[in-house]
Structures are given as C-alpha cells and as structure tokens.
Amino acid sequence: MKTVLVAVALAAAFVAPAFAQDAPPPPAVEAGKDLAAIVTLPAMSDEFTEIDVMSGGWPAGGDIPFKYTQYEGNEFPGLNWTDGPEGTESYAIIMQDTDYVARGAPILHWSIVNIPASVTGLKAGMKPEQKPAGSIYGPNYKGAAQPYLGPRTPPGPKHRYHIQVFALDAMLPADFAPKTYAELIAPLKGHVLASGSVMGLGQEKKAE
User: What is the CATH architecture of 2-202?
Assistant: First the structure.
C-alpha cells in the first residue's frame, strides 16, 4: 500500500507543473471586441456574410499550445476556411489580441493580404517565405511586412486571439506596403464580401 501511495504522490508531483500553467480565464469584458477588424470591416451585403474558419493548432475557443506562441517556437498553426461568395478575388487575414487595446485598436499580431481566391488554407508550419504566391505580409505590432507572430500573453488572465479571414472583391496593388494598422484596413473598407474568425486563448508561460 505504501508503494502505491508513493507512486501516486510522484505522479501528482510530475503533473503539477502542467496545472500550474493554467492562467485565470479572460476578462469578462473583452476590451477590444467592438474595435476588432471583423466588426469595423463589415460585409457589404447581408446575403452571404459568413466564412467558417478553422485553426489546425487548437479547437475554436480552446487554449493555444505554447509551440504556436513566442514563448516557444512561434510555429504557424495552420489555417483553413470555407470558400467566399461569388465575386471573391482575394482573401485577407488579420490576427488580433482583443483583450488589449493600444492606439485605438486591439494588438495586431499578424496580417496578410492578396491571398488568391483559389487558396482556402495555409499549411501548419508554414515558413515566412512559403506564403501564397502574390500575397503580401502587412504590419504587426513590431513593424511593417511581418510574418506570423504568435501570442506572448503577459502575466495575468488569458487573452483572446482572433484570426479573422475576409473575402474581398478586389486584389490590392502589388506594391501595397502598409506600415500601420490604419493603412492596412483603409483599402479593405467597402470591399468585404464575407468574413469569419476563429478564436484561441493565450496565456503566460511561467518558468517551471
């Protein structure tokens, strides 16, 4: 019996750090919810407005594994979405942390435009140079022309990270080079046919 109790104690000690990583749930009030791109860039028509978006790295609303964050490898999780409506010429993707607002918008982690209409998925582990032909990386909070930048959630409660996909009726110029979030979204306004998003929860990775 003593041996069994020791084994149980050792098992508990082994798994304890995993549970210690669990941060409190995100705040009840989502500070940047009404400022998110998917809200400020509404579809032009009510006929077909929703795209289903799926992350390859976590279930919708689930915890984001650390390998997809800056705490570990910042690996791209993979992303798939359903076809946009008739008239879709390209897709744009914007990833934001909506639990923190700076300069009037949620924190921008990733943006990419001019994804061809024939592309409805980006493979897991995609390297920066493997983006779809003709697509353009937009800015994130580190600067212009940046590839995927996963969460680095600060201490405290979990944060919500929304990856938002927009079906557009246009392609942007090949030399499009926005330096700010405002410059990124300005030419998208009035061109959104449909949109959708998937949300994941990020948290601080504490030292073990």
Answer: Alpha-Beta Complex (3.90)
